[in-house]
Amino acid sequence: MVRLYNVTKVYPNGVKALVDVTLTIDPGEFVFVVGPSGAGKTTLIRLVCREELPTRGQVIFNGKNMGRLKSREIALFRRQIGMVFQDYRLIPRKTIFENVALAMEIAGKPRREIKKRVPEVLAQVGLLSKARCFPYQLSGGEQQRASLARALVNRPCLLMADEPTGNLDAENARELIRLLLEINREGTTVLVATHDWDIVNALQKRVLALREGHLTEYEVQGSYRYGT
Fold first, then answer.
1. How far is CA 44 from CA 4, 130, 167, 189, 214, in A?
2. How far apart are the first and last CA of the chain?
3. What percent of the chain has pLDDT over 90?
4. Which residue among 61, 69, 190, 192 has its CA within the 20 to 30 Å range from the CA of 27?
5. pTM for this one?
6. Do 147 and 88 form a contact (C-beta atoms < 8 A)?
7. What is the DSSP string of the chain?
8. Are 40 and 210 in contact (CB under 8 A)?
9. Where residue 222 falls among pLDDT bands split at 50, 70, 90?
10. pLDDT of 134-158, one tens digit each?
């Protein structure tokens, strides 16, 4: 599904975010990308979802070279990917239903389909009763689950989460990871960037470890601690 071939990303200020990274993520996998702040985790995610382009190398998604997509193709490509962020990125003046529905509206889905699908995905993440609430009326854990519902509503084949538990307490973090595992079991490929070693070690999923832009470990069933 995702292939990186000798990918290097150098920013205009000279910072090398990724250096000669080659990796593969197959359909249906659950993969952690780990490493300390500044290791290159977020840059990797941005490259996969085509928010940025590599300085050198190739990023391939479902057989397509991201660097060769035409402008009109980028939006269609991104509908195959769901994104969950550490800071939720919900629109304050919209209800939770409206926040989730917006992803379908942008994709051009008909209103009838939106009315059917949004309650389904809110129920999946345990938020159907909060559909008419605004983000400020929800806890941090609930807001992150709303963000997850928005990422799932268009049925992506790849779900990527960038430090999704960073603002959550231990209980809410465990619930979010439980939902991600459930989504993965249903067939969606999941890629989680995190520095939460406890979660990584507990799940024993595949680990891609980055340090200063270099891919330093590539474990099939990983347990990993920074500095080991």
1. 9, 33, 21, 16, 11
2. 30
3. 86
4. 69
5. 0.93
6. yes
7. -EEEEEEEEE-TTS-EEEEEEEEEE-TT-EEEEE-STTSSHHHHHHHHTTSS--SEEEEEETTEEGGG--HHHHHHHHTTEEEEETT----TTS-HHHHHHHHHHHTT--HHHHHHHHHHHHHHTT-GGGTT--GGGS-HHHHHHHHHHHHHTT--SEEEEESTTTTS-HHHHHHHHHHHHHHHHTT-EEEEEE--HHHHHHHT-EEEEEETTEEEEEESS----TT-
8. yes
9. low
10. 999 999 999 999 999 999 999 999 9
> Strands across the sheet with 206-211, in order?
81-85, 158-162, 189-194, 30-34, 206-211, 214-219
**CB atoms closer than 10 angstroms to residue 141:** 19
Asked if residue 226 has pLDDT above 80, the reply is no
Task: Give me the residue label for tokens 């008909």.
Answer: 110
Q: What is the pLDDT of residue 227?
A: 46
Task: Copy the structure tokens of residue 44.
Answer: 């990797």
